[in-house]
Design a protein that fits this description.
The structure is a single chain. The chain is of the alpha+beta class. The protein has nine helices and 16 strands. The strands form four sheets. Strands 8, 9, 10, 11, 12 and 16 form a six-stranded mixed beta sheet that branches. Strands 1-7-6-2 form a four-stranded antiparallel beta sheet. Helix 1 crosses helix 3, helix 5 packs antiparallel against helix 6 and helix 6 packs parallel to helix 8. The longest helix has 28 residues. It starts with a strand and ends in a 6-residue tail after the last strand.
């Protein structure tokens, strides 16, 4: 688990210096990315002096250059994994110099409680005598994770915050057979295969974000309100289903990919997806499942709301808005709930679904 602590107590001089370091860090990362992209990625154990010294015009220390090389390898491997099924679409990743990963060899959290903040993040071994301390103020979420587990000595530093990681022991996953399927939507944030829906105010929150001027304080506030509502829905789900052993959702990736082509999505839908923090929703749901020892699985999202759960007939005409009516057998129901049923069925009929059964399935 992770927690972000704001750098709002840092002086302008420290933020400017941090900006300079991040820009240099990104530049060095891109040198390594270009080299590894052209010559292949070596194992991290092979990052010796001849590789670490590849960037010539930089003042970063050898220790931090090695960190850059490690991140370059991770970025290339992540890109290849993401586009492994579409290698012709793959392009070389670029580090934007907005953040850097450091370990205890670069930074150390030192508790120095004052009236304004709780600790210093002492950052050293950067190069050219760049040594400075970032003031850190702990908050409720940080303190909660600190009580639950062990803080790791690795940090993600940006101009606005420092992200801390925690190792939390939650015990073994539940071994029961109670499973639910969840469809993520705009009308209802979470629609379950048993007919229950949560977050029915999602559309109004999205519309509030869309009405605001892009980048305005009003839009930022509306986004925060929506994320808070997501957190509430996740808590409602975990409280309502205490006996759940498995949660199955759609793998919502690349939702905007080619969305403008062939009228794949309407302009209004593209705007909704653009403001819709579905990544945040799935991440929070997965974290809640981990905390509660619930297995979290994903399935392919294709045709889940166009497939009849009774006869299996697939047709775009089966769904009209929020109403599902099978053109073949006449089965009717809420389109999102039908999608949730198909999500769970897709997992149960797959390779790993043999030992599970639907939980409180109700056909509506």
């Amino acid at each position: 688990r992770s927690s972000k602590c704001s750098l709002k107590f840092a002086t302008k001089h420290k933020i400017d210096e941090l900006h300079t370091i991040l820009a240099e860090y990104g530049k060095v990362c891109n040198v390594f990315i270009k080299h590894f992209w052209d010559n292949g990625t070596p194992p991290k154990s092979a990052l010796l002096k001849d590789i670490v010294d590849l960037p010539k015009d930089t003042w970063l220390s050898a220790r931090l250059r090695k960190v850059c090389a490690r991140e370059a390898i991770d970025m290339i491997n992540a890109t290849k994994e993401r586009w492994k099924n579409k290698p012709d679409k793959m392009v070389m990743p670029v580090h934007k110099g907005k953040r850097m990963y450091v370990s205890c060899t670069i930074a150390e959290l030192q508790n120095k409680e004052t009236k304004e903040f709780d600790a210093w993040l002492h950052v050293a071994s950067i190069g050219d005598d760049h040594i400075f301390d970032l003031p850190i103020k702990f908050h409720k979420h940080f303190n909660k994770l600190a009580l639950q587990g062990k803080r790791l000595n690795s940090y993600i530093i940006t101009e606005k915050y420092v992200q801390f990681s925690f190792e939390i022991e939650t015990g073994k996953k539940k071994t029961g057979i109670n499973a639910i399927g969840i469809d993520t939507g705009i009308k209802a944030l979470a629609s379950l295969n048993n007919g229950t829906q949560f977050g029915l105010d999602t559309e109004s929150l999205i519309e509030c974000i869309k009405r605001c001027e892009h980048g305005s304080n009003g839009q930022k506030q509306a986004r925060r309100a929506f994320k808070q509502r997501i957190d509430e829905v996740v808590q409602e789900l975990m409280t309502h289903f205490k006996n759940i052993d498995l949660v199955v959702v759609e793998a919502l990736k690349n939702m905007n990919y080619k969305s403008k082509l062939k009228r794949r999505l309407s302009k209004n839908m593209r705007r909704s997806i653009g403001t819709w923090a579905y990544r945040y929703w799935l991440k929070r749901l997965e974290q809640a499942c981990e905390t509660n020892r619930v297995s979290f699985r994903t399935v392919a999202p294709f045709y889940t709301s166009q497939t009849c759960p009774s006869c299996g007939h697939v047709d775009r005409g089966n769904r009209v808005g929020q109403v599902f009516q099978c053109l073949k057998c006449g089965h009717t129901g809420n389109a999102d709930i039908v999608a949730a049923r198909n999500i769970l069925t897709r997992f149960l009929t797959g390779l790993y679904g043999a030992r599970y059964k639907p939980y409180e399935v109700k056909f509506v």
